[in-house]
Design a protein that fits this description.
By secondary structure, this protein is an alpha+beta fold. Helices cover 27% and strands 21% of the residues. It has one domain (8-106): HIT-like (HIT family, subunit A). The chain has 3 helices and 5 strands. It starts with 7 loop residues before the first helix and ends in a 9-residue tail after the last strand. It binds adenosine monophosphate and zinc ion.
């Protein structure tokens, strides 16, 4: 699967709806979360539509690794050495957009375990 016409993040990838884009890669895109939960809150997404991290990792392991390196590049560019990566996987743990995305969060103290 490459694009889902009903998917919000596919529309951002296609440029059909605007995103505050901070990084453009061949296979990934990173844009600021519309409802930031930290001073840095960026979403790194694959351009190809898959519903969650596990599906993306299965479909394209190299691209999935690129998500992690893109996340580091974004955090570094914004001046953060320390950051948290989150892949909500499934509605039961809070996934609301079913296009794989990695939350990159930084810039405030964070507790563990997460809420
Ligand atoms: P999740 O709950 O893990 O599925 O995360 C979805 C994220 O997408 C949430 O943090 C939302 O704030 C974010 N979001 C929803 N719509 C947009 C949008 N148009 N542009 C950027 N981020 C969005
Ligand atoms: Zn999509």
């Amino acid at each position: 699967m490459t694009a889902d016409p009903d998917c919000l993040f596919c529309k951002i990838v296609a440029g059909d709806i605007p995103g505050d884009i901070v990084h453009t890669g061949e296979r990934t895109l990173a844009f600021r979360d519309i409802n930031p939960q930290a001073p840095l809150h960026v979403l790194v997404v694959p351009r190809d539509h898959e519903p969650n991290a596990a599906a993306s990792a299965h479909a394209d392991p190299e691209m999935f690794a690129e998500i992690a390196t893109t996340a580091r590049a974004v955090a570094t560019a914004e001046g953060y050495d320390d950051y948290r990566l989150v892949f909500n996987t499934g509605a039961g743990v809070g996934q609301t957009v079913f296009h794989t995305h990695c939350h990159v969060l930084a810039g405030r103290p964070m507790t563990w375990p997460p809420g």
